[in-house]
Amino acid sequence: EVQLVESGGGLVQPGRSLRLSCAASGFTFDDHVMHWVRQAPGKGLEWVSGIGWNSGSIDYADSVKGRFTISRDNAKNSLYLQMNSLRPEDTALYYCVKDMGLAISTSPDVWGQGTTVTVSS
Amino acid sequence: QSALTQPPSASGSPGQSVTISCTGTSSDVGGSDYVSWYQHRPGKAPKLMIYEVTKRPSGVPQRFSGSRSGNTAFLTVSGLQADDEADYYCSSYAGNNIHVTFGGGTKLTV
């Protein structure tokens, strides 16, 4: 069974940093593109960042570009999101999402349960 | 990086059919084979219902179907059931190998 388990969320002050992790199991991790997608309270889904199987392709939403860094460790079947200079508008439930694609995004298909990030003083 | 456009709400009675639209541009919905639809219930992880415009993952009922015309994709739910009540989101590959764009979501009421 494919499983994605996020961790690392919490309450953080504006301007501080947080690192999210996602532990993957039940599939060949390095055969797939991976994403982070978030949902702010009362809002819709927002794609945050994605990374290809070998980290050769990486992209970010404009709203986080320059502040967030996505990475992966295929040996540990893990995905990460380093979030710096956090803002109140980054408050959201952050999902780790597996994609059907290898080198390019085709169809995000399996989602974790999410980890909550709250940015507030 | 504009979000795809979905109607905020849709509704139908049990047994009826409802169609939800998702409008983008020729750079995403209209020019990509990779349009997906998700069902999202409160407190649950989103569930993939349609991928590559028209394909259904294993386990998704045939009552759910996808189509596209120009820059607009459609999700049709036939034979509505109470259990179909949820938020539905579309997404599309949007270039740069990795970029994905989501619609604003449609709340389906049965």
Q: Can you characterise this structure?
A:
The complex is a heterodimer of chains A (121) and B (110). Chain A is built from no helices and eleven strands. Chain A is mainly beta. In chain A, a hairpin with a 5-residue loop joins strand 4 and strand 5 (45-51). Chain B has strands spanning 9-11, 18-23, 35-40, 47-50, 64-69, 72-77, 86-93, 100-102, 106-109. Chain B is globular and about 40 Å long. The interface between A and B is medium-sized, with 29 and 27 residues.
Short structural description:
The complex is a heterodimer of chains A (about 120) and B (about 110). Helices cover about 0% and strands about 50% of the residues of chain A.
What structural category arises from helix and sheet content of chain A? mainly beta
Strand-residue proportion of chain A: over 45%
Alpha-carbon distance between the two ends of chain B: 32 Å
Mean pLDDT of chain A: 96
Mean pLDDT of chain B: 95
Number of strands of chain A: 11
- Shape annotation of chain A: globular
